[in-house]
Design goal:
By secondary structure, the protein is of the alpha/beta class. Helix content is 44%, strand content 17%. Bound molecules: zinc ion.
Length: 178
């Protein structure tokens, strides 16, 4: 078996996406700001996977995200499993794109699906809309355990999972310094 050679250093030079999941109108702004401060400390882009439905109910969150150059990408319209919802997926992604452009004045590029659940159909539907469906990810604890030697393009966590957020500083330290 031929093993693909991976240049870990290359991977770490700002190429991975740090994905903060489930940001939406229910997000606690105070907790979210605490997380963002850690990203600022390391000058690493903070990417959010947005639950788009009802985001207009959180104007302070929208304002904070816009003012702080946080990257806004699609998680979902509502929290559904895309594999079971191919019929509504196209509509959901379109609605999400419209909401993100309206409130954040940017066009999303990625879809990080709920439960990292994607298949050929959903990947294809996203592609038709010029979006990249990216279900591949590694968790923060795994990232730390391997000292950043991971092949996944995305590192994910949830701002509300304090046991993971407590690891964020250490993980970004590895990302920036190792
Ligand atoms: Zn989620």
């Amino acid at each position: 078996m031929i093993q693909q050679k991976i240049n870990w250093k290359e991977r770490q030079k700002g190429k991975q996406i740090w994905r903060d999941d489930d940001i939406g109108h229910m997000t606690d702004l105070k907790k979210f700001k605490e997380v963002h401060e850690i990203f600022k400390k390391y000058k690493v882009t903070h990417t959010i996977a947005l639950i788009c439905k009802d985001i207009e109910k959180a104007p302070k969150l929208i304002d904070y995200i816009r003012k702080n150059d946080i990257s806004v990408q699609i998680h979902c319209w509502d929290h559904v499993d895309f594999k079971n919802s191919a019929l509504t997926l196209q509509e959901d992604l379109l609605n999400c794109s419209v909401a993100i452009e309206k409130h954040f004045k940017v066009a999303p590029k990625y879809v990080f699906p709920p439960w990292n659940s994607a298949d050929e159909t959903s990947i294809g539907i996203a592609k038709e809309l010029d979006l990249i469906m990216e279900p591949e990810k590694i968790s923060l604890p795994q990232y730390i355990r391997t000292k950043g030697h991971v092949k996944e393009p995305v590192i994910n966590f949830h701002y509300w999972a304090y046991e993971h957020v407590m690891l964020l500083d250490a993980a970004l330290n590895i990302y920036v310094n190792e």
